[in-house]
Design goal:
The structure is a homodimer.
Chain A lengths: L2 H4 L2 H20 L2 H8 L3 H8 L2 H11 L1 H9 L9 H18 L2 H10 L7 H6 L3 H17 L8 H26 L7 H20 L3
Chain A binds a DNA duplex (30 and 30 nucleotides) through helix 4.
Chain lengths: ~210, ~210
DNA sequence: TTTTTGTTTAACAATTTTGTTAATACAAAA
DNA sequence: TTTTGTATTAACAAAATTGTTAAACAAAAA
């Protein structure tokens, strides 16, 4: 028996379901397709997870930590000095998003239109407040010392999220649009974006 | 008869359908719901548009120009000097996206996963190439004169798109996340973002 | 007025998708 | 080696969703 076949059917269903839900959304996903791709009868899917909704909920809760980190990691390590903290926060956030490129689109297409369904998620993200206030303090201190310019942390975080997430979501689209003009491939493009975000944020906070 | 009632049923269906498709996506939209919200029997919907798909296609082609502008406007007016061209391009692009906030999410959730369905769209966007090359030339010239730093236009456009689009898509989410800490409302937040994008791009291209 | 054309409705049909069940195989424990 | 619980299948049922039709109706044309 190969490694693949050793996996329990339950596990197989979960893996296929994750990829289906993330790429097609809840409404676009067909339980029979999940079953078929997992190589099981679709009755098995209902046997293990009862309904499509419960299967979906299971996937979400399995991704709970990852989703939290997807936002929290951008705040960086508060032990480090400000500049390092930002560089490190941006880089690790970028890597996390790049490693899970379907997740942001999923959040945008599923969480935003159904906020009631994800209240638990929003609650969890309240823990961001502490780190947020903390980061604003670091910024204000550094600004007082004349090291950097005083900036609003909400604006700064929004910029970082935008610059990191959007290109990963839409790299296909951008590369296709500009086409042969630039001859980037996707890996090069993403590597360049990671540096570009850091560069832009650094320029944003340095005193003129 | 009121203004509303004077509208043809066909027009009513189209308006409701647009809002439904844009907020819930193709898969999440129910034709009976469209009919119900438009105050007509759902047979009418089929009478005018035959199928759900044809209704959808009709909406898309009606939005065709807008969708094109959604990308093209960021390139600005090539008659203007570079700095003005960028400022104007960023601002008008921001305004366009802000006036149609559901469209970008729709593009991300419908166009990206079904590229075959929107080939005509991608073709149209080929017209971006001319303007793109043109903008790179302006940048190179200004850089040669030492006015600005030499930057890659693909990176620059990606940054502008990211900084303009992402905050508009996810303003709800961001505001909720940071919550009472900053007491921005959505209008203030978006106004601030528009300026912030311009500021960041200007800092990115100025020589240190 | 009669005809014609396009609009509207209600009832129904077809299809797609999800969910259930009863029978059976299987594996592990007693 | 019976027993017990779990896993599996095929066939079926139910629900949801889309699409059709025939007949009524209204408006405009002849």
């Amino acid at each position: 028996m190969s490694e693949q076949e050793k996996k329990s059917k339950e596990q197989l269903i979960l893996e296929v379901a994750e990829s289906e839900f993330f790429s097609k959304g809840f409404d676009g996903t067909r339980t029979v397709v999940i079953a078929q791709k997992a190589g099981v009868t679709h009755a098995m899917l209902h046997y293990y997870f009862r309904t499509k909704e419960q299967l979906f909920d299971r996937i979400i809760s399995d991704k709970f930590e990852l989703i939290s980190q997807m936002v929290l990691s951008v705040l960086g390590n508060s032990e480090l000095p400000l500049i390092e903290r930002l560089r490190e926060g941006i880089a690790s956030h970028f890597d996390l998003v790049a490693a899970n490129p379907l997740l942001p689109r999923f959040l945008i297409t599923e969480m935003l239109p159904h906020p009631e369904r994800y209240h638990f998620m929003y609650e969890k993200l309240n823990s961001i407040r502490q780190l947020y206030t903390d980061l604003q303090k670091s910024v204000d201190e550094a600004a007082a010392q004349g090291v950097i310019e005083r900036v609003d942390v909400m604006m700064l975080l929004t910029s970082i999220l935008s610059l990191n997430v959007f290109p990963i979501i839409s790299s296909q689209f951008i590369l296709q649009m500009v086409g042969e003009v630039g001859q980037f491939d996707q890996a090069q493009f993403l590597a360049a974006r990671k540096q570009e975000t850091i560069e832009m944020i650094m320029r944003r906070i340095t005193k003129k």
